[in-house]
């Protein structure tokens, strides 16, 4: 039987594919291009083209598990729910959903992943929902230019602290949920081993790069405007900016310190630290 991985060439999807491949679990990578790196098989998949859903779940694909990464910047949960229903009808037994710490299951949520999470609960299917905090890889993807060119990172999180987590650790949490003999049937917070503010991150980067990196502080409104200016849809830009406000208010630090979630087996603590990540990727931020 096969695990279908949507967003299969993304940061968590490809890492998950490698973990499954290492235990000889067949994997099918779902991408819009229909291409995947060796040694993986791929299938063309587009959340907004239902015909590709049919192909990905064909009898020949033999899919019994699915890793769901909802379409970014989309406010439409219905396409994912329709896919989940189709998958169940085709014999899929377990789902792993990529969500986030701040998104609760809610059929009326303004965030699609919250609606999908609630739908998994309502169907009674086996599942795990991985709810990571903020990705360490943000510094490589979102801040490569601002660090390399202008020696700064930016946020509206002020002095709020985050247990930054690696996408490799997120993939590990999803892997364990999909391969456990008994399905977890719970949501699991995925955090890194340390708490750091953006100010802390700038200081660590400075020590690794040998030059001063500063933290540019935006208001939430300024940050939303910035995201809109670089092409984000206004609704999505506002969600991203408001996430910064929640960090300032202590949302991510509270997850890190949540002893109840840990006691219930609902918290996965990763191994990768900011310092290690910065040291391994320092060439990304070379002065341009």
Automatic annotation (TrEMBL):
Pfam families found in the cross-reference section: NAD_binding_10
Signal sequence bounds: none
Ranges where the NAD(P)-binding domain occurs: 7-179
Protein's recorded name: NAD(P)-binding domain-containing protein
Organism: Psilocybe cyanescens
